[in-house]
Amino acid sequence: MSTYKIALLLGVGLFLTSACSKDLFITHNGNMPSEERIAQIEPGIDKNTVLQTLGAPSSVVSFDKNTWIYMSADVERVAFFSPKEINRDILTIRFDDEDKVVEITRLDKEDGQEVKISDEKTETFGQQPGFFERFFGGVGQYSPFPGMNQSAL
Known about the structure:
Structural class: alpha+beta
Mean pLDDT: 82
Helix content: 10-25%
Strand content: 25-35%
Shape: flat
Radius of gyration: 28 Å
Largest sheet: 5 strands, antiparallel
CATH architecture of the domain at 31-71 and 88-111: Roll
Order of helices and strands: HEHHEEEEH
Distance between the termini: 84 Å
CATH superfamily of the domain at 31-71 and 88-111: BLIP domain
């Protein structure tokens, strides 16, 4: 291989690596209040005061409406590679039945755990259509006005 070809390959390689390295993006996601505002929250304060001080939470736990979550994350993206989370901050505030702060918890990226997704499936019974239902089940169910009950016509 000639020196010209080697120099050309090295030049193209350097060009490609420098072009791809410019595609680095760090995005900030979430709604984390400032440290000064978080320091104002203490046990015994009511929900309205927390809402006025910290703003709306990022999420409210669906099974327990008395737990508010504020969270933020910094994510690094390089060209077409998978995004990488470089920083995570989570603040949970739990209220009692009188809407007073009971517990304040802070978590970061190191507190996270890897969750393995299960391959198992839950079997459901009674919903297997037979041959005739599968092919002729929709006959006679035409509705010219969707959402209206047929008996109302």
